[in-house]
Design goal:
five-stranded mixed β-sheet; about 20% strand; elongated; about 375 residues; four-stranded antiparallel β-sheet
Length: about 375
């Protein structure tokens, strides 16, 4: 009798006794195992082939950057006159914003480290910067030198609320600190770009569910202080942000501290891996990433020219903003001096009026006493 198993697509002829039946079943299982191994090997070869084949991302970032492959799978590349090449995530909601679908971990000594929940959430949150484009929404802009950081965010704290927002592309890393100051950060980040959460949920995996609506940001910005601070440790960024000791002092909560370790298999990483109290990451800094992009750029492409023009335009805008800031500061100083002079004149006039009033009161008092004395003398003379 012939029997065809529809699940295995293997034909078996049952002839003979029980021993022959068991022998046939064993042969079928061995064949099935061989097919499974061959299928697994084929899938592995396809994955390796996919990794070996350069994607669109290799035109704009070095393939040595961890998470570069996921950029092609979960987004697309566009060109901008301000930033040149930029990456647009596609597998996100309409109201999506960076640094929201994940949580913060306190890593000693590197500071607040962002652990994103998305499968592509490694490279865009530890390299480059985010910007908001009216045509595309939130976009990721790779920086000239792909420097790893625990996060690239601005920070605010006060009145039991913690706030954070993506740093703009103008905030470059120079090896010892950011290229912009706190006042520039306050001016360049829009009010709706901030995330605020109660300090009681900050540092927990549920913080994403307690982020307040952007309509409250105006009030929260006025009630909080900027705590953006980056330091260098061996030329690598340390994201200080809001000191955990300050949060513990104000709330009584103790924030668990993790240690950082280099991943054993960085090529297969898609996100930081938490193992107990250790977070495994790949902190590779791609030095000269701009030259790497030139090597991978397609022939006849003007991507590098556009990026250079965008960088020059941003530098010019930064210089213009700096000149505008200096002029505003000078005008404020002049106005402040004028106000001080006017206040001083008003104070002097007020003092002069007060002294004149006091002098008039003393003179009238003397006249009154002299009149009373004269009256008393006249009465005594009449007696």
């Amino acid at each position: 009798m012939d029997f065809v198993d529809p699940r295995r697509a293997v034909a078996v002829r049952f002839v003979g006794g029980r021993g022959h039946y068991e022998h046939v079943i064993q042969a079928v299982m061995e064949a099935r195992q061989s097919v499974w191994i061959a299928t697994a090997n084929l899938k592995e070869l396809m994955v390796e082939d996919h990794r070996a084949a350069p994607g669109v991302a290799s035109r704009y970032v070095s393939p040595e950057m961890t998470g570069a492959e996921e950029l092609d799978r979960y987004g697309r590349w566009e060109q901008s006159p301000d930033y040149g090449a930029l990456w647009v995530p596609t597998a996100v909601a309409v109201d999506w914003a960076p640094y929201r679908t994940g949580h913060w971990s306190n890593v000693k000594p590197w500071g607040w480290t962002w652990i994103d929940d998305q499968p592509w959430g490694y490279a865009p949150f530890h390299y480059g910067r985010w910007a908001y484009e009216s045509r595309y929404g939130w976009v990721w802009v790779p920086d000239d030198n792909l420097v790893w950081a625990p996060s690239w965010c601005a920070w605010r704290y006060g009145d039991d609320y913690v706030g954070w927002a993506p740093l703009p592309p103008e905030a470059d890393w120079g090896g010892s600190g950011l290229s912009v100051n706190v006042s520039f950060v306050d001016r360049s980040i829009g009010r709706s770009e901030w995330c605020f959460a109660p300090v009681r949920t900050f540092g927990t995996q549920s913080v994403r569910y307690s982020i307040l609506p952007p309509t409250r940001n105006v009030t929260l910005l006025a009630r909080t202080t900027n705590y953006t601070r980056y330091e260098a440790r061996g030329s690598m960024p340390v994201a200080r942000g809001v000191p955990p000791e300050l949060l513990t002092r104000d709330t009584g909560r103790r924030f668990q501290r993790y240690s950082l370790a280099d991943a054993s298999s960085p090529a297969r990483m898609t996100r930081p891996a938490i193992r107990g109290r250790t977070i495994e990451v790949n902190r590779a800094t791609i030095v000269g990433a701009q030259r790497e992009r030139a090597r991978f750029a397609p022939s006849g492409s003007n991507a590098q020219d556009m990026r250079q023009r965008g960088n020059q335009r941003r530098q010019d805008q930064g210089m213009g903003q700096n000149r505008g800031t200096i002029q505003r500061d000078q005008r404020r100083d002049v106005q402040r001096r004028q106000n001080q002079d006017a206040e001083m004149r008003r104070q002097q006039q007020s003092d002069m009026r007060r002294q004149q009033q006091q002098s008039d009161m003393r003179r009238r008092g003397q006249d009154r006493r002299q009149y009373q004395d004269q009256q008393q003398q006249d009465r005594q003379f009449q007696r």
